[in-house]
Amino acid sequence: MSTMLTFLLSGMILLVIFLYSITPVSIVFQCLVSAQRSCANLKLKRIKVDGLEIEYLRGGSGPALVLLHGFAANKDYWNRVSGHLVNDFDVIAIDLPGFGNSTKDIELDYDIHSQVDRLKRITDTLNLTEFNLAGSSMGGYIAGNYAAQYPDTVTHLWLISPLGIRNSIASDMFAAIKKSLKPILLPQTKDDFLQLFNFLFIKPPFIPSPIINHLAIDAKKNAELNNKIFKQIIRVKNGEPDPDQPLDKVLINYSGPVLISWGDTDRVLHVSGASVLKQAIPHAKLEISQNVGHLPMVEIPLVTAKSFLSFAKQPLIAHDER
């Protein structure tokens, strides 16, 4: 009986390997991502906003929580943390225009002003009049500027290692850019992505090979667009970040609740940006995670979720504008 069971299991494993080998990468990728979304209780949805196709994930119940991904990322970067948030929030993870499966049009502008304006039209289309707003990296830059421009619509602002802060220490990424090396956030091959993941995380989560293969194919196909967006919204001058709407300026009079989350070993955006931002927003709550890289919501999803849940459950306190 034991020999027969072993034989059957071996046959099943060989069958799985065979099916995997003959299945297109895109199909394997979709199956893996769909399983991850299902585990997080998120459903795929689409809307059209002023001629743009916008794809997003939505699930859970409670106050709305809009999640904005970073550069070279997409809505699925929120899947790991969303599973810990859907019991308390109506989670909405958006593919920003130019990324993921939303419209990618190289003729459009993707500077901070354009993306904030598009986000407003997206939230209006979703009938979100008041909501929690979170953003990671580039998404944090957009979220912060959105909150500064439309403060009455944002109940809690969550900035995760956000782009767009002046006078912080140069990160490893910007130090490399200053040496005229290709920005690590512009990968095009599987090896580039493997290097990127080791750069983003201290302890990289397991990422199946089909996902990496799909990301590489997609990045190569959209290389010209990604380069344009990088120049327009990351904005590098003399090897250093040069934001035209820096968060430490636009949020200086912002009175709503703010949570700043950062990994102490972030190589993309140096953790010193956290103290610069905290100085500009004294009432903000600051949490630095030890031995964590650029994406805490991916690397330590449960800890990151608990941090926001604790923050969001505190009584709202109005802070006087300075």
Shape category: globular
Q: What would you call the structural class?
A: alpha/beta
What's the order of the H and E elements? HHEEEHEHEHEHHHHEEHEHEHH
| Assigned CATH class of the largest domain | Alpha Beta
Helical percentage: 40-55%
The CATH architecture of the largest domain would be: 3-Layer(aba) Sandwich
Strand content bin: 15-25%
In spatial order, strands of the major sheet run 1-2-4-3-5-6-9-10
Number of helices: 13
CATH topology of the largest domain: Rossmann fold
CATH homologous superfamily caption of the largest domain: Alpha/Beta hydrolase fold, catalytic domain
Radius of gyration: 20 Å
Distance between the termini: 77 Å
Describe the protein in words.
The chain has 322 residues and is α/β, with parallel strands linked by helices. It has 2 domains: 1-34; 41-313, Alpha/Beta hydrolase fold, catalytic domain (Rossmann fold). It has helices spanning 2-22, 25-39, 79-82, 112-125, 138-149, 172-178, 190-200, 209-221, 223-234, 247-250, 272-280, 296-299, 301-312; strands spanning 43-49, 52-59, 64-68, 90-94, 131-136, 154-160, 236-237, 240-241, 258-263, 285-289. Strand 1 (43-49) and strand 2 (52-59) form a beta hairpin. Helix 2 (25-39) crosses helix 8 (209-221) and helix 7 crosses helix 8 (209-221).
Outline:
43% of the residues lie in helices and 16% in strands. It contains 13 helices and ten strands.
List the defining traits of the structure above.
8-stranded mixed beta sheet, alpha/beta, Rossmann fold, globular, 13 helices
